């Protein structure tokens, strides 16, 4: 594995499937807490009749607990790309602390992203769009271009995006780039060690399946 990608909340798994097939040398940790989403992705990966002896693609690991717990354990500068696509918007003000994009958590996301790494965010919810814009305006870890109104080239679509557009909602797409000098190759090796440690046993976050990376 040369690059590590992390998807937070993969939903039904369309984007995760596209990501693991998009390029060689890419490893993806796909995070989802809802059983229906995990079942949907596994159904797409495991052929009918093979349920008793399933195997995941070698470049995919699943995390079925809160992604923030995983992120806090990952080595610094170990992730090359992070995806947050159409997350739960938690639209009520009293639930703002539950939003993944949060001023107190942005530094932790910045810590795990390698210099030059990307954080991609997409949402169709106006409340969350305004919140994301406000949070990003108050940080200095990432270079932030104005959000795009159309899905950028190279971004895989999801059913949530299609549902939003069918309902007349207008998604926005942010691409953030981690500031700092790029070209440090230590991130992938650091990631290999970190994933192996996380997969070592029940006391070390067993939902990350199948051990370290090849």
Write structural notes for this entry.
The longest helix has 13 residues, at 186-198. It is built from seven helices and seven strands, in the order E-H-E-H-E-H-E-H-E-H-E-H-E-H. The protein has a seven-stranded mixed sheet, with helices on both faces. The chain is an alpha/beta fold and 214 residues long. The protein has helices at 14-20, 35-45, 67-73, 106-112, 126-137, 159-166, 186-198; strands spanning 3-8, 26-31, 60-63, 79-85, 113-123, 142-144, 172-178. It has a single domain (3-204), classed as Rossmann fold (3-Layer(aba) Sandwich).
Query: Which structural class should the secondary elements be placed in?
Result: alpha/beta
Under the CATH scheme, which class? Alpha Beta
Question: If you consult CATH, what is the topology?
Answer: Rossmann fold
Mean pLDDT: 84
Poorly predicted tracts of residues: 183-191, 193-207
The CATH architecture is: 3-Layer(aba) Sandwich
How many strand elements? 7
Order of helices and strands: EHEHEHEHEHEHEH
When the domains are counted, the total is: 1
Q: What is the CATH superfamily label?
A: Vaccinia Virus protein VP39
Rg from Cα? 17 Å
Gross morphology: globular
User: How does the major sheet shape up?
Assistant: 7 strands, mixed
- Assess the beta-strand content as a share of residues: 15-25%
**CA(first)-CA(last) distance:** 7 Å
